[in-house]
Amino acid sequence: MALTLLVLSAESAPAESITVERGPCLGECPVYRIEVSASGEGTFDGRRFTAVQGQRKFSITRQEWSAFQGVLAPYRPRGTEDITPGHPRCRQMATDHPSIIVTWAEGKRTDRLIFNYGCKDPENAAMARVLSDAPDLLPVGEFIEERRLEDGAWDRHPSTDHSR
């Protein structure tokens, strides 16, 4: 019985860090990498079509970490899941969309979700929204784009000096 509890708590243990890498599309989609840790440290790396090019450090609160980790947790696979053309959840493929890779790391365990936004199967809709919106929970919106076109989500974070 104690062994079962140990195994269950190891499987549901929170990540020590989460990395989100958004890939290119056919057009001017932002391409970036965000790495954030439970300790509150973060790095944004703007690669293409972002307001900030290169690396910027930022910090987050425990609440922001909990919210970010919490919204992504339901989509964390055990090992790697690659939802791209050829996957059973990618029967309805629209070309030219960006992809996203989310990597959860804790100790020696690494889990990775690879998702192509062109996989338009209905069961992917909620996950696609969460993966797209998750960076809004971090103070990186101004790094990605000069102004938020949707709902002003990145305005929820007080403006701070991110140049450290």
Mean pLDDT: 86
Spell out the helices and strands N to C.
HEEEEHEEEHH
Low-pLDDT regions: 1-11, 156-164
Measured as a percent range, the helix fraction is: 10-25%
What characteristic shape results from the CA principal axes? globular
- Rg from Cα: 16 Å
Describe the sheet with the most strands: 7 strands, mixed
Judged by helices, strands and strand pairing, the structural class is: alpha+beta
- Proportion in β-strands: 25-35%
Outline the structure in words.
By secondary structure, the chain is an alpha+beta fold. 21% of the residues lie in helices and 29% in strands. The chain has helices at 2-11, 62-72, 125-133, 141-144, and strands at residues 17-22, 31-37, 41-48, 54-59, 80-83, 99-106, 109-116. The chain has a seven-stranded mixed sheet with strand order 4-3-2-1-6-7-5, with no helix packed on it. The longest helix is centred in the middle third of the chain and has 11 residues, at 62-72. It starts with a helix and ends in a 20-residue tail after the last helix.
